[in-house]
What we know:
The protein is α+β, with helices and mostly antiparallel strands. The protein is 31% helix and 25% strand. Strands 1, 2, 3, 4, 5, 6, 7, 8, 9 and 10 form a ten-stranded antiparallel beta sheet that branches. A hairpin with a 5-residue loop joins strand 6 and strand 7 (112-122). The termini are far apart.
Amino acid sequence: MLKGIAGAGALGLGASQLSVSAAAAGGTIEMLDGSDRLSLARTFSKTDAFQRLVRKARSLGYEVATSADRITAGVTNADGFNREVVSFGLDGVSGDSKGGIVFARDSDTDSLEIASLDIEHYRNDGLLSTGERYVLYKRGVETNGNEVTRETVDPNDAVVDEFVDRVEAAQRPSTDYDLPDLPDVFDVSECGGCYFAADKICKFLCGRLGAVACGLLGLSVVGGIGCWALTKAVCWVADYLSGCGDDVAATICKSTGLGVCPDSKPGDPITGEDIPYI
């Protein structure tokens, strides 16, 4: 099945890694390259979930791409939150869309946390219009027995408002939202977690499917739209500012965005612009 993976370790690709050290923030994220990326991809390709999503992709008219340049892989380790994430690209997706199958597993227990086929559709101005998800596993739970569950991600105003409400509610001692307990480094309702997530998304996750950020950062805790909205918002700001840095995080996390950080935090936010997705 994996024509682009089988035996690739002998091609001299090496084991270089793009390491993101976040020890001071309580965690590390590594985007894998070379033989490490391909080895992790091979592991996921042997699962029943992979075969089922390949079949689903073909039924929709797509083919799963398994060449090295179409695979993304990363590893997260932070205070008991340890994830391995792989995505495979899709061939046959229209030019204004992006697609892939995405897996995330707990590296301590080897249990699948995410297994889905994701297709993101974009408007002419480059903003995300809708997303289609065909889901087998979400938050470690098989969604519907042996069936793939179809979901849609629609970043309309009402859904995004709910996302922001969840973030704001998480800051209050009493909240109606049941948010999973994650390490502080990934809690985007806290200032430090918001800056951490914005920094890592900007540097390493722009241009990738939103579900990859969901897997690596656990951002699904802020609602179904959460990881999509935050990832796309960060990348829009990065494009507007032509780079990453404190100004990106400030725009996302201060009053111009989620409002979880005081003005005294580093960076000057964009003003006078409506930040899409948040």
